[in-house]
């Protein structure tokens, strides 16, 4: 499978996960990923400015002559979005510097997702919390997609909240089991039937080999 490099405005408002149509650019427009990656998340912006300036002084750009000798990557641009695959995103609120502002930027935890502009009057409360936001649209004349606030998860830095963010971002079901499911479980004093030909292998290290997304985990493997 051939990989094509797409960056910046060439993404044409496409978001990671979208199904898109792309056009390969002429070879004289092929490029390379930048050596220096800009930090995007708000937490990273709290780096000491002196250290950041020192890094900029030592991290020189690749000279054009040397860059020309490097192997360029086939570069393309998005010419159409066939299907949107938007989902709710977890992240933090980047409050506007204007005191009376209702529009603020939302910074997703997933760095492949651009910042999202939302409107809310709860900035005082939400700026210290992990929140969930959904995208509504991305107009052609807007630098950011437009979305809306869905719900708050809890305080930034709280271990349980950060764990929930990871579960939500990776689409891992973690809701409590219903009463109907719990009624299917055996009693607390239940013990397995180990009569022959069944063998107790609980002392061995055994790994599940069921495919990704499987909900009926019943295949396992042990090697020795």
UniProtKB/TrEMBL annotation:
<dbReference type="InterPro" id="IPR041505">
    <property type="entry name" value="Dis3_CSD2"/>
</dbReference>
<dbReference type="GO" id="GO:0006364">
    <property type="term" value="P:rRNA processing"/>
</dbReference>
<comment type="similarity">
    <text>Belongs to the RNR ribonuclease family.</text>
</comment>
<feature type="domain" description="CSD2">
    <location>
        <begin position="105"/>
        <end position="171"/>
    </location>
</feature>
<dbReference type="InterPro" id="IPR012340">
    <property type="entry name" value="NA-bd_OB-fold"/>
</dbReference>
<keyword id="KW-0378">Hydrolase</keyword>
<keyword id="KW-0271">Exosome</keyword>
<keyword id="KW-0540">Nuclease</keyword>
<dbReference type="GO" id="GO:0000176">
    <property type="term" value="C:nuclear exosome (RNase complex)"/>
</dbReference>
<dbReference type="GO" id="GO:0000175">
    <property type="term" value="F:3'-5'-RNA exonuclease activity"/>
</dbReference>
<dbReference type="GO" id="GO:0016075">
    <property type="term" value="P:rRNA catabolic process"/>
</dbReference>
<keyword id="KW-0539">Nucleus</keyword>
<dbReference type="InterPro" id="IPR050180">
    <property type="entry name" value="RNR_Ribonuclease"/>
</dbReference>
<dbReference type="GO" id="GO:0071031">
    <property type="term" value="P:nuclear mRNA surveillance of mRNA 3'-end processing"/>
</dbReference>
<protein>
    <recommendedName>
        <fullName>Protein DIS3 homolog</fullName>
    </recommendedName>
</protein>
<keyword id="KW-0269">Exonuclease</keyword>
<dbReference type="GO" id="GO:0004519">
    <property type="term" value="F:endonuclease activity"/>
</dbReference>
<dbReference type="GO" id="GO:0003723">
    <property type="term" value="F:RNA binding"/>
</dbReference>
<dbReference type="Pfam" id="PF17849">
    <property type="entry name" value="OB_Dis3"/>
</dbReference>
<dbReference type="GO" id="GO:0000177">
    <property type="term" value="C:cytoplasmic exosome (RNase complex)"/>
</dbReference>
<keyword id="KW-0698">rRNA processing</keyword>
<keyword id="KW-0694">RNA-binding</keyword>
